[in-house]
Amino acid sequence: MLTTTNAIVLSKLRFKDNDLIVKCYTQQQGIISYLLKGVFASKKSNKKVAYFQLLSQLQLETDYKSSRSLHYIKDIKTHFLYTTLHTNILKSAIVMFLADVLAHALQEEEQNDGLYSYLQTTLQWLDANSSFSNFHLLFLLELTKYLGFYPDKSQIETASYFNLVDGEFQHENRSKYSVSSENLTLLKQLLGTTFDELNSIKINAKQRQSFLALILVYFELHLGNFKKPKSLQILNDVFN
Length: 240
Known about the structure:
Blueprint: E1 2-15, E2 19-26, E3 30-36, H1 43-46, E4 57-63, E5 72-80, H2 89-105, H3 113-128, H4 135-147, E6 161-163, E7 168-170, E8 178-179, H5 181-191, H6 205-222, H7 232-238
Antiparallel strand pairs: 1-2, 1-4, 2-3, 4-5, 6-7, 6-8
Helix pairs in contact: 2-7, 3-4, 4-6, 5-6
């Protein structure tokens, strides 16, 4: 069945000599993997590879069959053309890291318009803005809304701890995964802000790395197969 869908590229892997497997999060079917046969066989076909940079926003016409594990692309168009996301070295590091996280965190093979819209609009925000060093922190926190473990904020004003296992603010230290002190303060600040106001929160490199490590533990605790991204070290080095 021929279908047209918007898609965001999460990963790509060269297969055999001339083929490419691309994993995308699509607006219509959720996570889908595509096989692009022969794209490395000639300079003409090699042009297709340029479309599939990490987190690119595309429009795909595909031959979709639910019984397949790999699908085929009939036509490719750019849905949104980034101006800085793949040329700014700092943004490129964030893109590599977030694509890594999303490739592990997103597993559903079904339509989720809210999640797709969130990814689409926040990536466009990152592309357009020049102050973004803390973008990935808020991005991951807000992503948990769509993954089912967004922090319960009912006790946020008075709580002295945040329990990563329970996903809630608490008044007592009940777990080895209870967060306090500097990371707790930062968590409360980030949960109370927006992307447009993010620059008002001042975080140094050490604090940023510590808080990011906390978020990744949170993901590991709530997503069974989630693994710490290999690109984490690159991100930390770039923003050191």
